[in-house]
Predict the structure.
Amino acid sequence: MKVIAFVASPRKNGNSDILAEHFLEGAKSKGADTEKIYLYDHTINPCQGCYKNCWINPNDCTRFQDDMNQLISKMLSSDLILFVSPVYMASYTSQLTVFFERCIPLMNVDLKNNVLVENRGKGKNVVVALVHDAPDLSIADIPFKAMDHVLKNTFQMNIIGKLQVSGVRDKGDINNKDKSLKEAYQLAEKLCAK
């Protein structure tokens, strides 16, 4: 089994990164091959909204030659995908937004008839995770709802797990959240044992 984690935090070794690492360790304990990708380390140009190029010419964006084709390929070759982000301004990070927008080439659309011809992301298994400093768990409602819409409704992926860690602000605060880190590890163990 191949498990990939897309870390959408600008802070390496920060709370999102540590949560991803525990998830990947749980996957490794069941023999999975794992990879962690820091989205902020990659050049991802923002979508320009032309849609015609990527929907008519599936499999890539013809407008930009950046890291997205490689990232999409890695995502599609994985059996389980983790998207983890801190919550900024009641949303996931802007880098994750840009990544999701640039995943539009997953779909091939007949624009003349407004019909979806192919969706290469359909059926992919995904876990979504958010970390934030608020004590109120409802702060993650909006970004979780947005992830549901993007991943489940648009890309037709299967969200098979959600993780949320509250009350973490400074780099490494999550290390004091043993229960949450254990939950991430055990979720990956469970999903990779199937």
The radius of gyration is 17 Å. The longest helix spans residues 178-192. The chain has one domain: 2-192. Helices lie at 15-28, 52-56, 68-76, 94-101, 141-154, 178-192.
